[in-house]
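Long-time lurker. I teach an intro course on protein structure, and each term I like to show students one example going from raw sequence to a predicted 3D structure in token notation. This year I'd like something fresh instead of my usual example. Would anyone be willing to generate the tokens for the chain below so I can use it in lecture? Attribution to the forum is fine with me.
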Amino acid sequence: MEYRRLGRSGVKVSEISLGSWLTYGGSVAEERARTCIHKAYELGINFFDTANVYMRGAAEEIVGRALKGFERDSYFLATKVYFPMGERPNDRGLSRKHITEQCHASLQRLGVDYVDLYQCHRYDEDTPLEETLRALDDLVRQGKVLYVGVSEWTADQIADALHLAKVMNLDRIVSNQPRYNMIQRQIEAEIFPLCEREGVGQVVFSPLAQGVLTGKYRPGEAPEQDTRAADPDSNRFMQQLMKEEVLSAVDKLRPVASDAGFGMSQLALAWILRQENVSSTIIGASRPEQVEDNVKAAGVRLSSDVLSEIDSILEDVIQRG
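-- Reply from a regular --
Happy to contribute to a lecture. Here you go:
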């Protein structure tokens, strides 16, 4: 495993991290989730990502129990806050009340005294940014949170937060968690330049485009019944990816990966890790073998010829806007 600094902070995280979205507490039973987490730890992954909203807290509980046997200072634990956790008016968003109460609830579910990274899962238009940043800063000062990050914020929102934190002497954002992969490249135009300049690291999710970049979905064929694309609860995130032109283009990446000596997943992950501003890329896994396969991308550096060939093949299906 290779390790990188999280943005401009001093902490180092594994290039490959393990997440729990749509898996642990849901489609993956706890015993298998524990096996995947233990395999990841064994292979050098020290970064584990979850969120309070994943299965309404169940994912945090499972991740916490799986990590309980390891020394607390040997892993980097991240969770998030924003999405509704109840039906009442204050059960959502980034108000001081919701942030504080949900941080305490997450700590209890995870079974830890602090989380390494606490992330704002989305931007809250209904709460003053100053209130959000002050609440997060208080949690840092209390030792319940070590670092602060965001997820899916725009470049302007990140810039505003960094400016306000500087003016008010508050703890600043160290990371952003965006969707990014060979096909979905929306963050390249504005997010990367800003974050490279400001020292905010990217913690990328959906690096395999919901499994599309693994090559398991073939053009002209219906997805197999046990796959995410065949699941009505999961495939709503995949509508833009399951088009025939996308699957046909991805299919043409097979010989590129083979000639380079990689599997399709390793090619996709190594492509992301070519970006120096990427601190880590989050994988999902329902079996420990998937973790073993994906970890092989750590430390891989793709040649300029391979990168050019990937761009040429995917040119017509890349999403930039």
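Some talking points for your students: The mean pLDDT is 93. The CA atoms of residues 93 and 126 lie 8 Å apart.
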